Structures are given as C-alpha cells and as structure tokens.
Amino acid sequence: MGLKPATNPDVEAASIELTIDGQTVTAKDGVSLYDVISSTGKIIPAMCYHYTFDPFGSCGMCLVMQEGKKAPVRSCTAKATAGMVIRTEGDDLFQARKKAVEKHLSVHPLDCPVCDADGHCELQDMAFQHQVTTLANAKQKLIPEDTRSLVLDFNMNRCIACGECINICKDVLMIDALQFMKKGGFTQVVAKGDVPLACEFCGDCLAVCPVGAITNKFSKYLYKPWQLKKTTTTCNYCGDGCQLHLETKDNEVVRVTSPLSWKNKWGERSETAQGHGGICVRGRFGFQFIDSKARLTQPLVRKGAKLAESPWIETVETVVGRLADIKAKHGPNAVAGLVTARCSNEELYLFQKLMRAAIGTNQLDSSARYGHLNFVHAVRHALGVGRMTNDTADITKAKAILVVGSNVTETNPVFSVRVKEAIRVYKSQVIVVDSANTNLARLASHPTLVKPGTEGLFVKGLVKSVIEQDLIDTDVTGKHAPAFAALKQAVAGLSLDAVSSVTGVSKDRINEAASVFAEAPRSVIICGEGIVRRPDGYRHVLALIDLLWVTGKLGKPGCGINTVTEEANEQGAVDMGTSPEFLPGQAPFDDDEKRAKFSKAWSAPLPGKGAGTGLMDILKKCRSGEIKALYLIGENPLGTLPASAEVRAALAKLDLLIVQDPFMTETAQLAHIVLPACTFAEKDGTMTSQDGKVQRIRQTMDPAGESLPDWQILAAIGSGLGCASMEYESAQDIQREIMKVLPGYYNLGQPKKVTVNPDGYLANGYKADVAGRYRAETKAADGGKRFGLTMGQLLYHSGKLSTQASGLLLIASGNGQLHMNAQDMDRMGLKDGDRVRVSSAKGSAVLGARADLSVMPESCFYPEHFNNPPVKDLMSVEVDAATGVPYFKQTAVSVEKA
Ligand code: SF4
Ligand code: SF4
Ligand code: SF4
Ligand code: FES
Predict the structure, then answer these.
(1) Ligand with smallest separation from the Cα of 280
(2) 276-310 pLDDT, tens digit each
(3) 639: DSSP letter
(4) pLDDT digits over 468-504, tens only?
(5) How far is the C-alpha of 731 from the C-alpha of 708, rounded, in Å?
(6) Distance CA 379, CA 398 (A)
(7) Beta-carbon neighbour count of residue 832 at 10 Å?
C-alpha cells in the first residue's frame, strides 16, 4: 500500500477507513490521498508526483471529487482522513484534467520531432489520453537553451514546472543543486545561483523529468526511443549493484537509464528503504568504455619486441601449450593467476577451477585482496558470517549509524542515499568519522574529523569510552564474562587522552559519539576504505565488532556491521573461491570434507592442503623465479601497486605473462600473450552485490571485434589443458554447475538475512585474540614530513574502467592534481594550478595543486585512478600479517612550491 513512512519506524500510524469510488478502503491516517487511491490499483493522472519525495502539488492532474467539497481536490497533497468519500472518475474530472493539460501545452513548444522525450513524454501521453486537439491560445516562451553543464542541457521552453527535478535532488539525494528562478518572465529551473550546474551528475533529475526539459548531452539527437533496444542489467562499477537499462542502437550504447523514472512513479514510499531506483554518475554517464575505440579486438602474441595479432585458435593453443610446458617442467606451482572482481560469478568460479583443477595450483587471488578480504576475514572469524550483516532497509531505519573511514557518497553513491534517507526521513543520528570533510559529514549529526590514518584508533577510543562511561549491556557481556574481562584488560593501557591527542578529536566528542551509538535502540556500522584498506584493517574491523558486542548490538535485529566495495563483484569473488584460503562458498581450502566434495565435482585432485599463495606472495615468488607463468584477468598490478611493490621486477622474471583484458593496460604492454575480453555489456552471467544480492548481467550487444567473454576463454584453456569438466556452451551451463556445488547461492536479488553467531569466538580464543588489539598508538614518526597524503576514490572514477569512459573523463579528467586545504595553500602562497613538489621517503613528484574544501589542514589527497605523475610510487607497502592485504594508500609527505 502506498504510504508515507512514519518519521519513527517504530510507531505505526492509526488505521482509518474511507470510501473510494464506492469501495471501503483501509489506510494509514494522514498519508497522501493519492497513495491510498493508487494502493487500490487505480492509477489516476499525476505529472508532478513521485512516490520518492513529498507531494508538490503543481500540475493539477491528480484531481478527485471529495464529498462535501464543490471543487475538485488535488489528491497528491490531500491527506487521507477517516470517513472521506472520494470519487476518482467522471466527465467533470476528465474535463478538469483536460484543462490542466491544455494549460501546460499552451506554453509548451510543439517541438516533439526533435525532442529526446518524444514517445517517452508524460505530457504527450496526457494530451493523447485527454484528446487535447486545439491550442488556440498557445504562445512560445523562446528561452535560450542552457547548455552550460557538462552532461545535462536544460530546455526551459519545455519545462512544466512540476518541480520533480528539484525535489528528487533536494529530498531524496540531499544534494539540492537545483532551484526555480524567475528569469525572462518565466519560472525556470536553474542550478543554484544560476551558475553552470556542477553537482554529482547522477542524472536522477533527468530520469524523473516527465518531459524533455532536461536532456542528456551524450545522447541528444542520436535516437528516437523506439529505435533503442533496452536491456536491464547490473552496473559493473561498484558493489552497490544498481540495476540499470543499457539502451543500444546498432550495437552501440546510446544511453543508460534507471528504474527511477517518471514512468515508475507509483510505489510504496517505504520501499525506498530498499532503493529509490536511481543510479549514480558512473552508472549513467560512464558507459563509453563499452564501445571505446581503444578496446582490444584481437588476440596478440609477442614476437620479439612487438605484440602481433594472432587468430584465436592458434593463440589458445599457444597459451595451453606454454602453460602445459611450464607445468611439466617446473610443476603446477610455477603457475599463478589473478582475477578482477568485475568478472561475473560464473567467470570467477571458472577461474579458480582452472587454477585448481586444470593446472593444480592454489596460487590465485582477486582484487578483493585489496581490502574487502579484511572485512570478510574479521566477520567470519568473529561472527561466522562472510559478508555485511544488514540489508539496506536496516540501514535506513537505524537510529544511529557510525560511518567510519568511508566517503560513501563518493565511493558508493547509491548506497549512501539510504543513509541520507535515514537522516532525512527517520531522523537518525549519524556519526561520520573520517579524515576528510565528506559530503555525508556535512549532513550528519556528529561529523567527526580525525587526522589521516587514525580512524582505527578512533574506533578503539569508542570501545574504551563505552567501557569508561559504563554504556555496557551487562546482560550480554555477563554471558561471556572472561571475554569481557579480557577486553577490559586489553583497553586498560589505552587512554582517551592519548586517543584524543593522536586523532585530534576531543575526549568529550569521543564520549558523545560513544553514547549516541550505545544508547540508540538500533545502531549499524558502515566501514570503508579508511578502515579496510589501512594498516591493521583486520583488527580494526574486530574492534568495531567489540563495540557492537559490548553495547548489546550484536545479533540484535536492525543492528550490525557493514562495508562497501569498490569493484562490482568483490563479494562474488570471495564467495566463488578466488583466493587461496577459500574454495567456493567460502569453504576453508583445508577442510577435508569440502575438498573431497569439490575434487569429486571437478573430477580432479585439488592442490595439497596448506598450499596456497595470495597476491603479494605471488609477486614475491615471481621475483624469486619460483613462479614462471602468471595469468592476469582484468588485473593490472603495475597500474595498481606502487613502485615499492616491485611489480615490474616480478613481471620481468616471468617466462609467460598472459593478460586478458578489454584494454591494453600498463601490465598488458609487457605481456607475452594478450587476450581480448568482453565487458559486462557483451556477456551473460550474475554478480553478487556487497549486501549479498545475486543479480543478472545480460548480454546487450555483440562483442567488440573478436573479444570474448572471460568464461569462454577460461573454458577453452581449461579444456585444452585436459580438464574434461571445463566444457561449457553458455554461462547458464556454469550456473547449473554452481547450483549443484553451492545450492541456494542464486538468490536472484533476495539475499537471505545473515545470522551472526559470536558465541564460539567469545568463548574460545577471544582472550588471546584481543590482547594485542588495543595497544596504544602514538603519532607515527613522519621524518619531519608534516602532510598526510591519502590516495582514494573520486565519485567519478572507480574500478579499472572508469578512466576509459569519455563521459567521466570529461567531468574529472586525468590531469592529476594534488587536492589541498585552502588555508595551507594560502599559507604557502599557492594558487589553484600552481606546481608543488610532493616528497615522501620513497621519492618525489611534481604536480599541480588545487584547493579542496573537504581536505583538512596538513592533509592532501590524490585521486588513485590517475597515475600521471605516478603519485602512488610515493607510497610504501605494508602487508597485513593476518590477511595478506597490502596497505599503500597513505604516507607522510612534505609539500613545497616547485
Ligand atoms: S544530476 Fe543529480 S545531483 Fe545534479 S542536479 Fe540532477 S539530481 Fe541533482
Ligand atoms: S525541468 Fe522537468 S522535472 Fe524539472 S520542473 Fe521542469 S518539467 Fe519538471
Ligand atoms: S557505480 Fe555503484 S552506485 Fe553508481 S550506478 Fe553503479 S552500482 Fe550504482
Ligand atoms: S500530481 Fe497532484 S498536483 Fe501534480
């Protein structure tokens, strides 16, 4: 039933009865009458209404007759009350609505033939439905088109002033970039302040605009809607797993649209806790990598210094022959492989099967190693679950949300809309702990700026504080008294004064954050790169779990710990077993029963127990010459890791480097064999979102050139190597096999709620485990380098493909600049664009500087997707002893005018 949510999700509005077209209807008191009518299945016209935000009431289309009133009422803004008698049909209402359409059309240009919305326009539909044939008093507005924004054009002649664009941006996204302004005698939509629009460019305003007043610069004049083939698929950029529609014409992507649109405006408001159907800038405007001219279209084989084109069959034979040769001469452990987590589940499964069953090695890893595995290992160890513990509805309805080390509006923009909804609709208290003044911090009740790299220490401070302030749930801690005693002992050496001095947050604010979290009836944690990709990430996740436990939130409905992932299928990569520690289903590699099961299923022995090498050790073994052949699928370690990881030296030692990728990466340029792979738009399969939803990707178009889906290449190599069980006709064939070995995995968008079970962890081994977790940290020695340099994601770039998307490059180009605090720049006499020399213990780089409001004093930020100049080479690498996760995103630097 279409109802507005209560501000407090714990309080149900009273039920009332009213009559609609002679039928008695039960509804919640005070909700929009329009929603009550639509809940009966009647859809009455509405042009300014959208269920995701509060009614605006401007278009005059949703008219109904209410008994006792002479004139029709606007049902969207009218509130349902007990005893109302409503009529929704009749000639009087038809004529009144027709008048409203005529009014809109009389100031609307009839330029439908050249309008992007032609055939997909609510005003057209309404004119047709109400048989509006004469427009005797029509007049033109003749407003010049506003083309100042990078991605959207505003044609205000077509605007019907419905306010949907402004309302979605203000209410749902809390960005508030648009406004109405009286200009040239007309009410027009402009960017706030009437400047060129510079916002998050999500395009949700474009999606809800019922007419062609906002248009997409990239697809303008390229299509009529009926020429487009529309395929629903899953975005390949981040772990949010948004559904989107790829719209193609003649095998080219013309535009990307979202389930959010004016066509999809009737729904239940409480459903928005599951997602509002919108997508972000990367999903909507970052599609050009798919049919980029830079795509690899032919297999390439090195002939001397050059890579020369080679036919597929011959190339696969070469790959198979050389792998078999190396295996025969040096054993299976002379081979290793790395795979990207933007591959489908089926491909990830096949990759590990190829490595283990066809080659016989357990030297394999995926890009989940860059941080997500810290989270997975910690929650598995402590809670017995292998992913985040809440769904998006839990997050939206939490009363306290601790967002730590996660610039979530940039990294996972659509997930962040759930947190915004928690703030706006449910009035949640949100504590944002970050070294940058993030967008979410600006909306949060408790923005908490910490010094770079001290997010983990702040978490320890919270645990110390809840114990000191006696905010403990003694029922819960009493069940595991020895564990609680061990925790108290572990935190004894940590002083809040020391935490305050190192993090830069006052003791009072630490205590306040701790009490907000502890005292709320439902509290959730969201931790991101600032935790899982920083030194001690694994232990910091465990400290967050301590916080949940002692405050009584562990296992309590609506409470839990969550993370966000950069690549689309990092959770799938872990679930499909693409790391040495896990077989598919996160089964421990050394578990005899599971080993027997997979060995039987694949008709092949598995590599021996205890055998296995992950990312950083694979590179080490390449350098030492133990590994002779490396197979990279979508991974580009040379572009990802800093020089101190010595990737170049590792690759140089190899006898065989195979790179399978849609693009010629830095690493591919050094390869002996390059295999052209398809993008997600050219293949079928499934991906698992960070919250465990398994969703389809669907083939939209023919593969570019002779590129092939990764699964097809893997199957060909596996069968060539003599693995009889690697012959597949389709991605569905692989799915059928996964269904047999992992029954229930394919939940198709409806993940099971996970149930945490910390009792084993708290009862056994916790004491030893917690002992070193709270050691006091002092300010790291910085060798006199006073700036903290952090590398991280931008809203406009994520994963390894966004820098191949011309739309995203137009918004955020590759001219890497150092983001600095404006006061620091003033103090140093620097203006935007001035060159600075940034030096760390590992070297120095010269680059332009720019002021960034989100950067704290004595901090600086560099977008990690750009490597020109190679700022990442200023970083040193530290490897987590527990999880093998490499840390290389932060370092101390000096900055001086160049
Ligand atoms: S593109 Fe997104 S952020 Fe920008 S104005 Fe439209 S809705 Fe707002
Ligand atoms: S631009 Fe579109 S969505 Fe915005 S007010 Fe005008 S018609 Fe409505
Ligand atoms: S990048 Fe992430 S948030 Fe943006 S549309 Fe894709 S999945 Fe959604
Ligand atoms: S939908 Fe009610 S006035 Fe527009």
Answers:
(1) 3
(2) 999 999 999 999 999 999 999 999 999 999 999 99
(3) H
(4) 999 999 999 999 999 999 999 999 999 999 999 999 9
(5) 12
(6) 20
(7) 12
Ligand nearest the Cα of residue 237 is: 3
Residue 1's pLDDT is 36
CA distance 388 to 426: 22
User: Which residues, other chains included, contact 470 with Cβ-Cβ below 8 Å and sequence gap of 6+?
Assistant: none
Report the mean per-residue pLDDT for the chain: 94
Question: Residue 191 CA: which ligand 1 atom is closest?
Answer: 5
Q: Which residues, in sequence order, are bridge partners of residue 787?
A: 893
| Interval between CA 244 and ligand 3 midpoint (Å) | 9
Residue 165, token pair as written in the block: 């664009």
User: 206, 280, 794: which to mutate for ligand 3, most atoms within 8 A of CB?
Assistant: 280
Atom of ligand 3 at shortest range from CA of 413: 3
**Upstream peptide bond of 743 is cis (omega within 30 degrees of 0):** no
pLDDT tens column, 153-163: 999 999 999 99
Q: Cis peptide before 869, with omega less than 30 degrees from 0?
A: yes
> What lines the ligand 1 site, CB under 6 Å?
168-169, 173, 175, 177-178, 199-205
Determine the residue of 159, 201, 218, 811 to mutate for testing ligand 1's pocket, defined as the one with the most ligand atoms within 8 A of the Cβ atom: 201
Side-chain-side CA neighbours of residue 458 (13 Å):
30
In 3D, which of 236, 83, 144 has the Cα closest to residue 698? 236
Q: Please give the DSSP secondary-structure letter assigned to residue 387.
A: S
Query: Is there an atom of ligand 4 within 6 Å of 78 CB?
Result: no
Maximum average pLDDT range among 97-106, 261-270, 352-361: 352-361
- Which of ligand 4's atoms lies nearest the C-alpha of 49? 1
Bridge partners (DSSP) listed for residue 891: 789
Query: Which residue type does 287 have?
Result: F
| Test site for ligand 2: of 48, 179, 211, most ligand atoms within 8 A of the Cβ | 211
CA atoms within 13 A on the CB side of 705: 20
Q: b or e along 458-480 (b: 16 or more beta carbons within 10 Å of the residue's beta carbon)?
A: bbbbbbbbbbbeebbbeebbeeb
Q: What is the pLDDT of residues 768-821, one digit of tens each?
A: 999 989 987 665 556 667 899 999 989 999 888 999 999 999 999 867 799 999
Q: Is 57 in the pocket of ligand 4 (CB under 6 A)?
A: yes
